[in-house]
Task: inverse folding
């Protein structure tokens, strides 16, 4: 920081600017400590102008005055000049800091006065800096002049959730309120979890309804045709009771058209516990459709067949577009089929190591695309997977 006796640390002190001005060093201030009028020894260094030695309180004041005058006369007209000023006076190695640092060498009875003088000087230098900085912000600076703060900002395009995600979130939310939790599983799974464990043994005719894509190098692996595989994984864990919903993507070997695709999304549900009944199933699904489609919607169960449930049913709701009067969407029936359901087949429970005499359960499964088509008035299922921003941005703000 400053010159030392013996000349070991002969660095130029910031108080000793090359163009002349103020000089200070430990020795100066030690002498100053001993006598207000002590003169600085020049034994180890040669200042440019000896008149600037700091060797007494009066001189300090005088030198501060000189610096103040220097500051007053400065022409700060660019960001560069401002930064140079900051470094020279206010920087960590600047004049103000360096002067302050000499406090330790000041005689105790002088410390207070020295401190006060220095603080005032510091505030003065800082205030000047802020003043110039503010002016630079108003256009003194070249770059600042080019910035027009009144111009409108660049709009940040806000993305939106995909309509399938929106629909899935709504569905999940309703079941979560009933105590169901979300479970997930693999999209590429083995034949056992997708078919066999679900009471669909090899060569079972019901497999035809869910033809899928097989891994060519090992056809024991396939793209799941429904999220029921997650139900099997969960039941195999052996932790009962189970109350889960399983949203996810599924695949089927279907011709792609406006109404069907080779992949789509499902939410399935499973509840296994002691004494779970068909009444529990109906009540759960009635609650779901009312929360999902409104209190006025009607629902009905039709007997059906699935190898993994017995008895099985399909659930229809009154057509959302014609309120049951009959239109092209409901094919003039007034009803829309929305899900399959039933009591979990005892064989499925046993396949997963669950005692079917003690436990029973219900399961249901539905697609996400179809309700999304209805809710948002979308006419072509392919739009969901084409990544056309013109389509997707219409859902900005939808929740
Ligand atoms: N897994 C059936 C399907 O994908 C849906 C379903 C699930 C039906 C559970 C009944 C019970 O078509």
Result:
């Amino acid at each position: 920081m400053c010159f030392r006796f013996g000349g070991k640390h002969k660095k130029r002190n910031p108080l000793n600017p090359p163009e002349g001005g103020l000089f200070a060093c430990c020795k100066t201030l030690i002498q100053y400590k001993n006598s207000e009028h002590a003169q600085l020894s020049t034994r180890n260094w040669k200042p440019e102008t000896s008149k600037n030695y700091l060797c007494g309180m009066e001189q300090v004041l005088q030198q501060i005055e000189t610096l103040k005058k220097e500051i007053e006369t400065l022409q700060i007209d660019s960001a560069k000049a401002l930064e140079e000023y900051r470094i020279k006076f206010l920087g960590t190695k600047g004049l103000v800091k360096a002067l302050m640092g000499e406090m330790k060498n000041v005689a105790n009875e002088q410390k207070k006065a020295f401190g006060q003088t220095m603080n005032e000087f510091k505030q003065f230098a800082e205030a000047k800096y802020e003043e110039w900085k503010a002016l630079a912000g108003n256009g003194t600076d070249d770059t600042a002049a080019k910035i027009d703060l009144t111009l409108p900002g660049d709009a940040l395009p806000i993305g939106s959730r995909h309509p399938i995600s929106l629909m899935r979130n709504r569905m999940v939310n309703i079941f979560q309120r009933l105590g169901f939790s979300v479970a997930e599983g693999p999209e590429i799974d083995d034949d056992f979890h997708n078919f066999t464990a679900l009471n669909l043994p090899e060569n079972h005719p019901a497999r035809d309804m869910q033809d899928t894509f097989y891994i060519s190098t090992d056809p024991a692996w396939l793209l799941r045709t429904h999220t029921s595989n997650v139900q099997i994984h969960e039941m195999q864990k052996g932790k009962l009771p189970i109350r889960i919903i399983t949203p996810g993507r599924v695949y089927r070997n279907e011709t792609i058209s406006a109404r069907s695709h080779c992949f789509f999304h499902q939410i399935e549900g499973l509840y296994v516990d002691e004494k779970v009944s068909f009444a529990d199933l109906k009540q759960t699904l009635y609650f779901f459709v009312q929360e999902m489609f409104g209190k006025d919607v009607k629902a009905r169960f039709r007997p059906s067949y699935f190898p993994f449930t017995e008895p099985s049913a399909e659930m229809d709701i009154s057509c959302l577009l014609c309120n049951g009067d009959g239109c092209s969407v409901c094919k003039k029936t007034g009803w829309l089929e929305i899900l399959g359901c039933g009591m979990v087949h005892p064989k499925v429970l046993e396949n997963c190591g669950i005692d079917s005499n003690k436990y029973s359960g219900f399961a249901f499964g539905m697609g996400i695309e179809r309700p999304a088509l209805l809710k948002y008035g979308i006419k072509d299922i392919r739009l969901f997977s084409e990544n056309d921003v013109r389509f997707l941005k219409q859902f900005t703000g939808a929740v």
